What does this fold into?
Amino acid sequence: MNCALVDDERWGVGLARTLLEYGARSATRDRLGFTALHYACVHRRSALVGVFLAADFDVRVADRRGNSSLHYAAATGDCDVTTALLAAYRRHRLPVNAVNRASQTPLEFAYYSGHTDCFQMIRDAQEVDATSSQPPQPQSPVDGYGRGTMRARTSAVSHKGAYRPTSYR
It folds into this structure.
């Protein structure tokens, strides 16, 4: 985790590669729930983010506040880090609009921080997600408009005689 805190980024990258080569765990967290990838995003270490993504760090991991590494990349406004993370999200076919515990998305982080370039990149990635994915199928006998589906109607009709209410005296 401390590789992102080293002043010389090249030295931090070399240190991270060595640690990963000797089996350092990528899921290690601190008391705030930050992983090494979170720290690399917060401190704008694009080369270090590249090393962690090449080592297949999980980009979906959130800290105690529910913020993913993409939330922090959007908040700092580093386009290189944001681009690398968005490429990892695309590669793993993950949605980029995950919300934290305050119901904020990385897009909102970029917008409220005033980082228009990151805002545009995340918005474009969301549009690609929306066009490439299939619309969700209803999982319940109620469709998206609050009406019962035909399956629910036929099952209700077939069980009509099975229910006999007791008297309410």
The radius of gyration is 23 Å. Residues 116-132 form the longest helix (17 residues).
